[in-house]
Each structure stands twice: as structure tokens, then as C-alpha cells.
Amino acid sequence: MKTTIPVFSPTMQEFSDFEKYVENIENLSKGFGMVKVIPPQNWCARKKGYNLINPAISHPIKQVVTGLAGKYQVVLLSQKSMSYKSFKQYAIKREIKESIPIEDIERMVNYT
């Protein structure tokens, strides 16, 4: 069993075509499951930022959890395709706005 992961430190030239670079290291890292890539020192992730990115999420997953007293069921439901911005708006709308006090949580839990 392999216990350490391969570490790669590409040059700026190698890193300029990231897809090609990944294809090359895939052959060198078979059987590991993951690798560590240390980008060149003068590499910049995105000069334009990330605000203009709006990829499609082809199969967003909705997680429904039900249960009580330590027994829970999780159902994963595939949703229709949506843009990242739509998904983000949906996620923000679904966030819990107020936290539940610990005393209320303890009352809800059955410690038997």
C-alpha cells in the first residue's frame, strides 16, 4: 500500500497549459488517488477575479434529512440543472437566519 502522495512542482511553462499538465501527471501518479501540485511562485490564480464565472451545475443535489433520537435517514434528490448564481441565491435563501439556543436543542434530544 502506498502511504505518501506524489508532489509535483511544475515550471511556469509546464503550468501554462494546466489540462495538458494534469494529463501528464496522471500517468505518473496512477494508484495514488491524489497528488499535491505546488504552483510556480509567480503564478496567479485569476487576475480578473471570480465574479464573472457562472458555470452550469448539471445535477445539483438536494439533501433531505429526517429522524429523531439518533436515528436519521438521508435522501439525496437530483435537481434540474441551474447556473452557479441561481444555486448560490437558493442556498443563501435556505440558510438558517437565527441560531437555535443550546437549551432548546438539548430539550429536543432524547438522551435515553
Structure explained in plain terms:
- The chain is 30% helix and 21% strand.
- By secondary structure, it is α+β, with helices and mostly antiparallel strands.
- It has two domains: 31 residues, no CATH class; 53 residues, no CATH class.
- The radius of gyration is 22 Å and the shape is elongated.
- The model has no long low-confidence stretch (mean pLDDT 81).
β-sheet strand percentage: 15-25%
What is the total domain count? 2
Judged by helices, strands and strand pairing, the structural class is alpha+beta
**Count of DSSP E strands?**
6
Order of helices and strands: EHHEEEEEHH
Give the % helix. 25-40%
Distance between the termini: 43 Å
Strand order of the largest sheet: 1-2
Give the rounded overall mean pLDDT.
81
Task: Tell me the radius of gyration.
Answer: 22 Å
Tally of alpha and pi helices: 4
The coarse silhouette is elongated
- The low-confidence runs, each spanning 5 or more residues with pLDDT under 50, are none
- Let me know the largest β-sheet: 2 strands, parallel
Can you give me a brief rundown of this structure?
The protein contains 4 helices and 6 strands. The chain is α+β, with helices and mostly antiparallel strands and 112 residues long.
Give the topology.
Elements lengths: L6 E2 L3 H5 L1 H11 L7 E2 L18 E2 L3 E8 L2 E8 L3 E2 H11 L7 H7 L4
Parallel strand pairs: 1-2
Antiparallel strand pairs: 3-6, 4-5
